[in-house]
Amino acid sequence: MVDGPKRRLPVVGSGPTAGPGAPSAPGTPSAPGAAPPRGATGSPEKRRLPVLQGGGGDDEGEERPPWHWIALGTVAIFIVWLPLAGLANTLLRRMVERTGDAAAEGSVRLAMVGLNAIAFALAGLAGGYLVGRFGGRAGRREAAASGAVVAALAWALALAEGAPAGALGWALLLVVMVAIGAAASYVGGRAGLRARAGAPPSS
């Protein structure tokens, strides 16, 4: 009877990886921090793309304080008022030159004052609407303040020109102009706030 080949049991600890220079078997994890075996490519480093932060309304700059809108409303009222007043005065002067009636000078002056007051009120409405519509935290109070500032500046300019009027007349003129400017700008500011509330949100 012929004996078959003897089977040798594997010795624990022995194997191809026992030596320090022996290549590791495929799939065998390498020690942490060890260099990759020769001929093998290391795992590529993960590159992190910069995350772009979505720009919102806060990135456009800080919101203007309310008193800035008083100055902007003042400028807007002057821009609207001066052309309207110039047009009204030019038309009245041409009417006087054509008629040539000296008795009509009193009525022409009254008409001139009335048209200038109407032009001032329309300008106050426009400037107040601008403040109320786009003024951010500004509202009716800032709109009315811009109209009052324009009235005071116009009164000071008239006083500097030396128009004939007594102290009482100048005081009454100041009160009337401030009242017209503040009231018209207040109404315009309220209309601007209503338009702002009804406007669709910007994307």
Task: Explain this structure.
This protein is 58% helix and 0% strand. By secondary structure, the protein is mainly α. Helix 1 runs antiparallel to helix 2.
Label this structure with key terms.
mainly alpha, single chain, 4 helices, 203 residues, 58% helix
Short note summarizing the structure:
This protein has 203 residues and is mostly helical. The protein contains four helices and no strands.
Return Rg in Å. 43 Å
- Terminal Cα separation, in Å? 96 Å
**Biggest beta-sheet profile:** none
Tell me, rounded to a whole number, the average pLDDT. Answer: 76
User: Helical element count?
Assistant: 4
Low-confidence stretches: 49-61
Shape: elongated
Portion of residues within helices: 55-70%
**Beta-strand residue percentage:** under 5%
Class by alpha and beta content: mainly alpha
Order of helices and strands: HHHH
Number of strands: 0
Secondary structure elements and pairings:
Layout: H1 66-99, H2 105-134, H3 140-161, H4 167-198
